[in-house]
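Side project, low priority. Logging it here so it doesn't get lost.
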Amino acid sequence: MAAKYTPAAIEEKWQKTWDEQGLDTASEDASKPKFYALSMFPYPSGNLHMGHVRNYTITDVIARVRRMQGYRVLHPMGWDAFGLPAENAAIDRGIHPAQWTYQNINQMRAQLKQLGLSYDWAREVATCDPDYYKWTQWIFLQFLKAGLAYQKEAAVNWDPVDQTVLANEQVDSEGRSWRSGAKVERRLLRQWFLKITAYADELLQDLDKLPGWPDRVRLMQENWIGKSTGAQVVFTTAAGDELPVFTTRPDTLWGATFMVLSPEHPLVEKLTTPEQQAAVAAYQAEAAAKSDIDRTDDTKEKTGVWTGSDAVNPVNGEHIPIWIADYVLMGYGTGAIMAVPAHDDRDFAFARKFGLAVKVVVQPEGETLDGATMAAAWPGEGVMVNSGPLDGIPAGKGEGQSVAAAIQWLEANGKGKGEANYRLRDWLISRQRYWGVPIPVVHCPSCGTVPVPDAQLPVELPENVEFSGRGASPLAQLEDWVNVPCPSCGEPAKRETDTMDTFIDSSWYFLRFADARNADAIFDSAKVNDWLPVDQYVGGIEHAILHLLYSRFFTKVLRDRGLINFDEPFSRLLTQGMVQNITYKNPKTGKYLPLDQVNPEDPKDPETGDPLEVFYEKMSKSKYNGVAPQDVLAKYGADTARMFILFKAPPEKDLEWDDADVEGQYRFLNRVWRLVTDFADRETPTAATSPDLSKPEKELRRAIHTAIKEISEDVEGDYQLNTAVSELMKLSNALTDSPAKESAVYTEGIQTLVKLLAPFAPHIAEELWHRLGHTDSVHHQGWPALDEAALVADEITLVIQIMGKTRGTIDVPADSDKAALEQYARESEVAQRYIAGKDIKKVIVVPGKLVNFVVAP
């Protein structure tokens, strides 16, 4: 009797063996083509969730297939380990962030190993390790040298009770502090930025170099960069100060009837007249308490205050009032806009509310708009009017239309110039937190901002820190850490106490994996240029903009610093779908209910008796609909979990969890186990396949090579791994049903099944491979080779119909023409039973399929 399939014992055995053998260590054999497979590394929260399992399993299948196809594969894993949750844990639990983080890393590493993921663990990195963030700091200094890092004032979320800066995540939907409950204020603070805008055009243009990325992601990045063309025009104040504005519609300048500045604009104080000082100051304080999202919400009523001053419109010399309003943000554009209420909805609402002039400069065809009486703005097409040199020109951005004419006139008259503008803003990287990379500069009263010398890196985080969630950044409170001699002049100076945005850490980690243990340099450029770009990157769509854009930015800067020789970090990108589960929600209370508290046959709230809404939603703690990977592994094993995750949906689609389908994959692996172990337990021929195969042998060989063909195609291109699992099932069924079990073809089929299964269910495949008598790992075997000849059928099954009704089938040569098919059919025993002695009126032949006889009644 064959041994029973025991996944727990088998998986533990082979994980230990692979680890001891270093089976998944990346080969440095330069004679092989390279393949770099990478999953977006996780934040070490302490436990894997099913989204992790899906991401990592997809990438692991790709990596394992490539190894079997003869590639040298780099498939590493690490930890995006800095961040606010660790600091919150320090506040709430009194445990140091480092201790909490490394405990979680150890726990999650063990969980990853249980999944049988083929990582080269010798290359593991954690972004909170000084050996890693030393080089993060070094990169920052490269940006500083290149003029791409600078300081300026920017708004932060300020808790007036705890006297501390809050991250956006620490401000609730009502604008209150998560800890004190105080209404959060916006305050200006001197902070560090990286000049990503210097690369805006290249980041946009190089999206064309990424055909292996989903169109959706490229479009999201394109929109985020947000290139627009127009003109910069300079308005002036009565005192002669300049107020530059960028506009995509310079043709409407003659219709500008007022200007609006951000409340934070540096000229507001100078422009405010004594009579308006109180109103302006009150409005500035009110605006400071609002988030940028609140300020730019188009559904809210517009607010604003006149400064008491006017500006001069450069195209016609008219004086127009200068207002401040919170919907203009200092961080976007120049912090000043010209307002053309007749042709902009927002400006129109503002003008009507405050009784400002509305001047029409675009008349729609066949109509005559009057600024005093129009009920809404007209943003559409028409003809330019009241616009001096533009009168009579068709309004629009096309060739020969008003925008181009306006830019030409502005440049010819020295009033402005055409230029491109970007929605993309420079990257604010300062964080007033502890658990992040210290920014490696020192502020000296004599020398100014001085970079920490390379030899003094890393600037390490101090250990003796108190975490209260109150007051200044924990680093700013450590006098013995803050106060240092200036690296340049030696005089007393102070360290920068901000740490870096954690997106910095993940913007270059994929480079470090190529040379992860280099203590002397950030990496050996030759190694990085060899392994990079990443051939296949896999991660969630939620990272479509920030992480991927920042990684592209870092790659281009490091290229320009002479460190690497490629333009883009990730050649191909797969954004896997979410893992969803059945979810129960009480529509009256808005509460979600745990799965184990609801009867799925009659879903009602056990407390209130209310009928529940039932739907699929992304697994999450807050929805009480998660399934712990550890529970599935304990019951079924890692191979079953992997097979279900791969089979249930295509990688890019959302996956709906179903316990019955998990059970189904477990049963399938049991069938494979019995099939192979039964074969291994009996004497089998080892002779080469005979050229003279029986019909069952030919059919089985066709099934074997059909599986090779289909699965080989499924693991390329769009990675249709769900259909690859289906093909494994088909091959298993063909072997089970084949009468040729003593044939060498059957032996070929069993061996092929195990090799094709190996990337998907690596543990059971390894065990079965060894039970077949092999001593080397199945994962070191070559990918099964396709024999195209085996796919060609030399016989086909021909359906015999009488009067359109199927009466039987016969086997005939596959290359038979219509005449031959008719003859075979006429002479067959099946047809003769119905047509012998009858008058055949008509014969319908469908080549390769059927022959239908129409006989007289």
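Brief comment: The CA atoms of residues 579 and 655 lie 5 Å apart.
Revisit when time allows.
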